[in-house]
Specification:
The structure is a homodimer of 350-residue chains. The first copy, chain A, is of the alpha/beta class. Chain A folds into three domains: 44 residues, Orthogonal Bundle (434 Repressor (Amino-terminal Domain)), CATH 1.10.260; 130 residues, Rossmann fold (3-Layer(aba) Sandwich), CATH 3.40.50; 134 residues, Rossmann fold, CATH 3.40.50. Chain A is built from twelve helices and twelve strands. In chain A, strands 2-1-3-4-5-11 form a six-stranded parallel beta sheet, sandwiched between helices. In chain A, helix 1 packs across helix 2, helix 1 packs across helix 3 and helix 10 packs across helix 11. The radius of gyration of chain A is 26 Å and the shape is elongated. The termini of chain A are far apart. The relative contact order of chain A is 0.11. Chains A and B meet through helix 4, helix 5, strand 2, helix 6 and helix 10 of A and helix 4, helix 5, strand 2, helix 6 and helix 10 of B. The structure holds a DNA duplex (30 and 30 nucleotides). Chains A, B: This is LacI family DNA-binding transcriptional regulator.
DNA sequence: GAACATTATGGTAGCGCTACCAAATAACCC
DNA sequence: GGGTTATTTGGTAGCGCTACCATAATGTTC
C-alpha cells in the first residue's frame, strides 16, 4: 500500500543524508508536504484533526525540520549573529548571555563572532555571517567600516547596535551613555571632596575600546568645569586584567604620590588595584580612593567594597534581543533607541 | 549583447532578496556558475587565467556566497554548534573562547546553545541544531539522553565531548580527569599536614554539575585511604558565586570550628571565602587553609594567593576545535581521546 | 437554495548552490 | 597525425523546504 512513486526513496543523490524529510511525514500523515509545513509553522491555518495526525507522524518518525532548506526557501534562518570585539572580556559575555537566553526562548540561535577590535575583521565577518541568511544581526558599537554599514542597511533586516548610544545608527540602538557614566563617577569623586583625580584605563586608542575614551572625555569635562587638574591619564594598551590594574595603580602612585582618587576604566582594573592595595597595606579610601565602572559582583566582596558605576550588562543583552524580536514578529517599536542607563553604586572605596 | 534569457533578472520570487548570486558573477566573468563555484571552493581545479577573471568579478560585484544554499546543496554548512550547560559560568566561556578562536580561523562559525544543566533541553537543542546541517558538534560532558546520543552517532559527523574524560563517548573526547583533580588537591592538603579537611561545593546533585561530584569522590577516596575523616561535605544548589563561597565558608566554620582546611569545588567559591576571611581578619592559611580548582587569574591577586588546581580551559577549547578540524579536513587522528591535564599550583593559601 | 465570503488543502516552482557526469580542450606519445 | 590520457569547463538535476496561486470544502446571507 502506498508504493513510492517516481523513483522511490533511496535514490537520494548526495552521501546518504538519511534524515527524515517533510515528505516522509506527509506520507505518514496522508497529507501534502506543504500542509505539513503549515502545520508546523502556522498551526492555526490547519484544521485540528489534520494537525493532530501530522503531529503524531512527526513524533513517530522523529522528524526534525531542516532549517537550512527552510531558510533557503523563505530567505531567513532563525539565526542571529552576535558580533563582539572579544570573548575574553566579561562584559561582552554577560551581554551575550542576556541575548542568548532571550533569543533561545523565542526559538532563535545565536551565532558567535569576534573581531578582536579590528574593524576590517568586523566587516569581513559581517559579510560572512550574512551568508547564513540570518534573521537579524547584533553588533557592538556604532563605528563600522562604511562598506559594512552600507551592506547592512541595504540588507533591510533588523540590526541592533549595542553598548553605546548615538547617531547615526544602522537600524536600532541599545546602549549606555559612556560620556555620562564617566562624568557621573568624576562628579561623585569631586562631591566626596577629592581634587587630585586620575583616570586609569587601557586600550583607549581609537583602534581598541573607544568607549573607555568616551568615559574619559566625560570625566575630563567634569573636572575641567570644576577647575581641577583634568588631564591626569594613565593608560596602557593591553587587555584589561587584574594584573594591569595592579600595574596602573603602582605606576600612578609612583608618578603622582599626591593623588587622592583613581577613576578606573573598569572594575577589573579597579579590583586589581584594590587587591594590590590590600597586599601593600595601602588604605582605601583614606590613602587613595578608587572608583570603577561596570558593577562586577567581585566589587561587592572586596575590602573595601568597590564604588562603581553599575551597568546592566545582562539587561542590555535582553533588551537588544527584545527589540530584535519585536521587529521580527512584525510588531511596531516604541522607539528604536533604548538608553539602558547606569547607576552609581556608592560603596566603601571612595 | 548577452540579453538575459529565460525571463531575466528581477522576476525573483521572494521578497526582493537583492543579493548578488553566483550567477551574476558567472555572467560578469563569462563563465558558468559551476565554474565560479569551483574557483571559490577548489581553486586548484580552475586554470589561473579564468580564476583571476572570476576573482575580479567577485570583487567587482561584492559577491558573498550564500552559505545556506551551499549548505543545502552539499549537506554541510560551516557551522559548529557548541552546547554548554550555562553561559554564566566563566569556565565554559573560556572553553568557548578557545573553540571559537580556533574554528573562526579555519572559517567555521560557532553556534551557541545552553542547556541550563537540563538533559532534556540538551536533547531538544541537539535536535534543533542538527537542523542547521552543521559540520560537527561540540557538547559538554559525557552524559546525555539516550535519544540524543543515538541521533548523534547515527548522524555520522564529528562530535567532540568536552570537560570530562571517560567511556563511552559518542565520537571524540577532550577533557580532564575530575576525580584525579579532586584527589590531587586532597593529597596536597594532607601533605601539608592538614587533617580535618572539608569539601565545599555547589550544584553537585546529579541534575547539575556532576563533575564537581566526581572531584569530591576523588577527594574523599584520598582522605579515606589516609584514615582521616572523609565525609565532610558542605554544599548548596545555587550557581557558584563569590557570595556563595562566602556563605559556605561561614557555614562550615560555624558547623565545624575545628576545621583545618577547606577544599572548594572551584576558584569562585574559594575566592569568595578568602575575601570574607580578609574582611573578618581570619588568617589564611594559619587559621584555615583554602584550596580551589580552575586557576582563575583572580586567585593570583588575592592575599594570600590561592592554591588551586589549574585547568587549561582555553587550551581545552582549542584542543577540542583542533580535533574537530582534523576530522573535518579528512586527516586521521592520533587518538580520539585527549586528556588535557591539570596542574597543582601551590601558592600561599594552603 | 443561489451567490458570495471564508477557510482548508494541494500543486508548482524555485530559493542559490554544488554533486555528478558529459563534453571540450590541451598535453602527450609513439 | 591518430590515438590516448590528463585537464578544464559546462549542463543538469536536485538538496528540503516554503511562497504563491489554484482549487476544494465549508460557512454565511438573504
Amino acid at each position: 500500500m502506498a508504493t513510492d512513486k517516481e523513483g522511490a526513496r533511496g535514490r537520494r543523490r548526495h552521501r546518504g543524508n538519511n534524515r527524515v524529510t517533510i515528505e516522509d511525514v506527509a506520507k505518514e500523515a496522508g497529507a501534502a508536504p506543504i500542509t505539513v509545513s503549515r502545520a508546523l509553522n502556522t498551526p492555526e491555518k490547519v484544521s485540528a484533526r489534520l494537525r493532530e495526525r501530522i503531529d503524531r507522524a512527526v513524533e513517530a518518525l522523529g522528524y526534525v525540520p531542516n532549517l537550512i532548506a527552510g531558510g533557503l526557501a523563505s530567505a531567513g534562518t532563525r539565526v542571529i549573529p552576535v558580533v563582539v570585539p572579544s570573548l575574553s572580556i566579561l562584559t561582552f559575555i554577560e551581554v551575550i548571555h542576556g541575548i542568548q537566553q532571550t533569543l533561545e526562548a523565542a526559538g532563535y540561535q545565536v551565532l558567535l563572532g569576534s573581531t578582536d577590535f579590528d574593524l576590517d575583521r568586523e566587516a569581513a565577518l559581517i559579510d560572512s555571517v550574512l551568508g547564513y541568511s540570518p534573521s537579524g544581526v547584533i553588533l557592538t558599537g556604532l563605528r563600522h567600516r562604511e562598506r559594512a554599514a552600507h551592506r547592512l542597511k541595504a540588507w533591510g533586516r533588523p540590526v541592533v547596535e549595542i553598548m553605546e548610544l548615538g547617531e547615526p545608527c544602522i537600524d536600532m540602538n541599545v546602549g549606555i551613555d559612556n560620556a555620562g557614566a564617566g562624568a557621573c563617577m568624576a562628579q561623585h569623586l569631586l562631591d566626596r571632596g577629592y581634587r587630585r583625580i586620575a583616570f586609569l584605563g587601557t586600550g583607549m586608542g581609537m583602534a581598541r575600546d573607544y568607549r573607555a575614551r568616551e568615559r574619559y572625555e566625560g570625566h575630563r569635562e567634569v573636572l575641567e568645569a570644576a577647575g581641577v587638574e583634568s588631564g591626569l591619564l594613565f593608560q596602557h594598551d593591553e587587555p584589561s586584567s587584574y594584573e594591569l590594574g595592579r600595574q596602573l595603580f603602582l605606576e600612578a602612585l609612583e608618578a603622582r604620590p599626591d593623588l587622592e582618587a583613581m577613576h578606573f576604566a573598569n572594575d577589573n582594573l579597579a579590583a586589581g588595584a584594590i587587591l594590590e592595595a590590600n597586599r601593600r597595606g595601602i588604605r582605601v579610601p583614606q590613602d587613595i580612593a578608587i572608583g570603577g565602572y561596570l558593577g562586577l559582583s567581585l566589587g561587592e566582596h572586596l575590602t573595601p567594597r568597590l564604588t562603581t558605576v553599575t551597568v546592566p550588562r545582562f539587561g542590555m543583552g535582553v533588551e537588544a534581543a527584545r527589540l530584535l524580536l519585536t521587529r521580527l514578529e512584525g510588531r511596531s517599536l516604541a522607539s528604536s533607541r533604548v538608553d539602558i542607563g547606569y547607576e552609581l553604586s556608592v560603596r566603601e572605596s571612595t
